[in-house]
Design brief:
single chain; 272 residues; alpha+beta; Jelly Rolls; 4-stranded antiparallel β-sheet; 10 strands
């Protein structure tokens, strides 16, 4: 459970770091499951292409440990403490990043509440891809002031005043969707596992924002699947949706995600 100080830190600065959240044996399993999925991406089936960002879901039976992480009490308990017992676990994805990422938040609509757990599988320092946060930028009006002064800049990421989250494998960084973040340097294979939670909408405005985010998420994940695999599969594996363990928590998430539109099929791309 989070302490009052940790909750205050998250609310004030927009993030938390959990040092050695995962034990060495857990990290060994996570690395093996990520490696097995990465080996099936276009990076290996089309090795002559320039290295590109790869991203995939981990909710299938081939990655059982990763598929269970959203329901891990250490993780969902944190989400429930921050966003209520009906917080919704949306996903457990993994990615292999290439070089730096520009300054950006993960959401711009302040009627959408949520956060991401990020687990990097390699040691990261300021010069080779560690996350950077502009502290407190998840709150208005500072969030908008950062946008006006920085925008989604990829140039000279390191020149802006920011907190650098240097991490070791096993550390987890949790951060608010609205927090401005970036990275500088990095390799052509910077591996991360991300687990995403949202707050169950409390008002009509939140419901509208969440449904809009669901449409955008469905399209984004479909695009990433096409860019990552020769033969893309569904974002939500049928095995996970069947809920074979009869988890009441997972079933609640599945039902609510269906109502909000996260389980909809992506719309066909326009040919005009």
């Amino acid at each position: 459970m989070l302490t009052e100080q940790q909750v205050s830190h998250f609310n004030t600065f927009g993030f938390l770091i959990f040092r050695q959240f995962f034990k060495p044996d857990e990290m060994k399993t996570i690395n093996a499951e990520v490696e097995s999925r990465l080996a099936s991406t276009k990076r290996f089936t089309a090795p002559d292409d320039a290295p590109a960002y790869m991203s995939w879901p981990n909710l299938g039976p081939e990655t059982p440990f990763l598929a269970g992480l959203p329901e891990d009490p250490r993780i969902c308990g944190t989400a429930e403490q921050l966003y209520g017992e009906d917080a919704i676990g949306l996903s457990c994805n993994a990615g292999s990043y290439v070089n730096q990422t520009h300054w950006h938040p993960d959401a711009s609509d302040f009627h959408l509440y949520g956060f991401k757990f990020a687990l990097y599988l390699q040691p990261l320092r300021a010069h080779d891809g560690a996350l950077r946060f502009i502290l407190g930028s998840h709150r208005r009006p500072f969030h908008d002031e950062v946008h006006q002064n920085i925008g989604e800049s990829v140039q000279n990421v390191g020149d802006f005043p920011a907190y650098v989250c240097e991490t070791e494998p096993g550390d987890v960084v949790a951060f608010d969707f609205h927090l401005w973040h970036a990275s500088w340097g990095g390799s052509t294979d910077r591996r991360m596992v991300s687990i995403i939670f949202i707050r169950n909408p409390q008002t009509s405005e939140e419901e509208k924002a969440t449904r809009k985010a669901a449409v955008e998420n469905v399209q984004l994940r479909a695009t990433l699947a096409r860019n990552t695999f020769d033969t893309p599969g569904p974002e939500y594996h049928p095995h996970w949706l069947e809920n074979p363990g009869k988890s009441s928590k997972r079933q609640y998430w599945i039902d609510r995600m269906g109502e909000l539109g996260y389980l909809n099929a992506p719309q066909p791309l326009s040919t005009s």
